[in-house]
Amino acid sequence: xxxxxxxxxxxxxxxxxxxxxxxxxxxxxxxxxxxxxxxxxxxxxxxxxxxxxxxxxxxxxxxxxxxxxxxxxxxxxxxxxxxxxxxxxxxxxxxxxxxxxxxxxxxxxxxxxxxxxxxxxxxxxxxxxxxxxxxxxxxxxxxxxxxxxxxxxxxxxxxxxxxxxxxxxxxxxxxxxxxxxxxxxxxxxxxxxxxxxxxxxxxxxxxxxxxxxxxxxxxxxxxxxxxxxxxxxxxxxxxxxxxxxxxxxxxxxxxxxxxxxxxxxxxxxxxxxxxxxxxxxxxxxxxxxxxxxxxxxxxxxxxxxxxxxxxxxxxxxxxxxxxxxxxxxxxxxxxxxxxxxxxxxxxxxxxxxxxxxxxxxxxxxxxxxxxxxxxxxxxxxxxxxxxxxxxxxxxxxxxxxxxxxxxxxxxxxxxxxxxxxxxxxxxxxxxxxxxxxxxxxxxxxxxxxxxxxxxxxxxxxxxxxxxxxxxxxxxxxxxxxxxxxxxxxxxxxxxxxxxxxxxxxxxxxxxxxxxxxxxxxxxxxxxxxxxxxxxxxxxxxxxxxxxxxxxxxxxxxxxxxxxxxxxxxxxxxxxxxxxxxxxxxxxxxxxxxxxxxxxxxxxxxxxxxxxxxxxxxxxxxxxxxxxxxxxxxxxxxxxxxxxxxxxxxxxxxxxxxxxxxxxxxxxxxxxxxxxxxxxxxxxxxxxxxxxxxxxxxxxxxxxxxxxxxxxxxxxxxxxxxxxxxxxxxxxxxxxxxxxxxxxxxxxxxxxxxxxxxxxxxxxxxxxxxxxxxxxxxxxxxxxxxxxxxxxxxxxxxxxxxxxxxxxxxxxxxxxxxxxxxxxxxxxxxxxxxxxxxxxxxxxxxxxxxxxxxxxxxxxxxxxxx
Length: 865
Prior knowledge:
The protein is α/β, with parallel strands linked by helices. The chain folds into five domains: 3-140, Beta-Lactamase, CATH 3.30.450; 254-331 and 344-426, Histidine kinase-like ATPase, C-terminal domain (Heat Shock Protein 90, 2-Layer Sandwich); 444-570, Rossmann fold; 578-729, 3-Layer(aba) Sandwich (Rossmann fold); 752-864, HPT domain (Four Helix Bundle (Hemerythrin (Met), subunit A), Up-down Bundle). The strands form five sheets. Strands 3-2-1-6-5-4 form a six-stranded antiparallel β-sheet. Strand 17 (520-525), helix 14 and strand 18 form a beta-alpha-beta unit. The chain is elongated, with a radius of gyration of 40 Å. It starts with 10 loop residues before the first helix and ends with a helix. At low DSF concentrations, interacts with RpfF.
């Protein structure tokens, strides 16, 4: 037989189908072996085969009764069978001219009978055969042919199932890879977005920390600390989206550090207090006395959960109150105590955030903890929100070993519960925190507040300190108690009460014989009390703001009754600066290079350095860092990670390649990124230390304290070298006092309040700093506008976005809010690739810059004189 005649016309497509099924050279398979065994038994033949015809061989997937695993394709009976659409039969191979040359017929094997049915795919390709073989000649009936066809169909079905399974696996792998790629892209986008948001936040938090170094009244100090805590909380919220991505990929890791549970709760409440005061909501908390005051866990994540629940409660409550309560119980000692000794002090804490808000329908509660979901679309329209907060909070709770659930009644409010498991630090409970002074024991305290929850909390607190407490729910009831001859040692009056407010009540009390010298404490919501002549006339002993902090209340009561100055537990602003050595530079003379492209971040970092005795040279990108290192030696480089031209990582690698370890400066990374492994990436690039943005003075101080100056080369002209080094080390001398900002007229292009606030923060050096900032801005802004024009002309969205972003940040820092807003819009257009719309904005920006320039030059003249 001509070999060419045994090749199907569609051979290349057929072979492609063979390989698509991926069956060749696969291991023994019981499913196919059962089919061949069944065929052999049914036809009463010794041999049955499932064959696959390859380009040069016939490979046997199953070979019942035959030891051979494959034979050559030509001449081959199966090669002939795949040319058919029906059963290919050889009754007696020794007399059939088609098979006389076949070695299985002519050789010792003695093949006489063959019947094979092609294994045809659904798209018409014959892959091979199911065949039966005998060493005796025989006939095959039509019924037997039909049976062989049915068995061949079973073989094909098995192949199709395996192909489908293979495709499903491939599809799943492809989808998984696509999902991973999407997650990676999303994570990179979120990291970039986080960095862009964190950059202006660095200025906000940095300036508030600097403001805390100045002299502040108690109220101003409270406001500034709240701004700072709010800024830090905002950074946490910025990370929420990143957290969600990390949680999805199971890469979120919780810290295990000691923290004070009372501080955690009070700081969370401080953040929501202004919003609650705006809505006239009562905000309060109560903690079970036996709760351990110090635990081990992730305080940032716990605060994140509390703030989210509080924020929702305040948002969805129009009137009434929001109450946070904490209860706890110690868990039985677990197994493996020797390996995990902290388990014997493990507690389960239950938090409850109760509000008197709109409530949640029962049928919609299941949507609460789903990602990007709220109760209904009208909720989103009226109250806003992404719908991520509860989903993240629930997952964080589960990571802390607890759970989260809700109870709610429509129109009455909701209670969100969550639990955490945490080991305690052996530092006592909240009940043991204060040693009760004798001046409180037995003293009679009058509490006047129309809110029942506040009355109960104040009464419980007073009673825990041994006081005898009396409550009145209105001014009239309080006056009745006093008129009846009841004597009190002190009274706490709520300012915001219906019918008779706290100030009116205080005046009435002062008119009573037993109220003339009664110590009165005014309780008010944040921002609601303006201390004027009327308040002064009443002569209050102290003022407290809601939500009342236990430590503040304790110290207030104690100090008033002891007739000592009030020692409310607050941060000591005056001593903050002295906790750091302002002359660190004299003890540790370091030549510092600051690598930072953002002007606001530059000024914050430079001023922090000034606080501890240093100045620094500044580079705006990695190339400038390399050039600066070629000009002179530095002991330290404070390296921003994300910079234009050359970023901090690439710059560090270049420095390590060019300089010996003993000759190169110590490199400290500064980054706003919070992605998993950011610190490790910096250290792997060759950086020596790492501080996060917004920069904290304490972190900067600690990082610099680890540095050492390089040995100085000795020259004969030692005095010249010493003077030159003195200039490089930049040890500060005291500056002359300069005039603060006065109320000069600021054109509408500049927000005067921003400049005034900046100058107040900087203190007596403000004028010089403002002039320097204005000069820097007026030099950089035209270049940025030129870069914006160039980017629009060349349709370069990346360049446009960077230039607009930089101009936005610089303008906002100096109070050019309108220009900053225009720059921000341009940045958004560049990010969206809407370059045509961007070109329409440039003339408006240039005109606004001219107005800003005139205003800043006028302001500069004012500071110079």
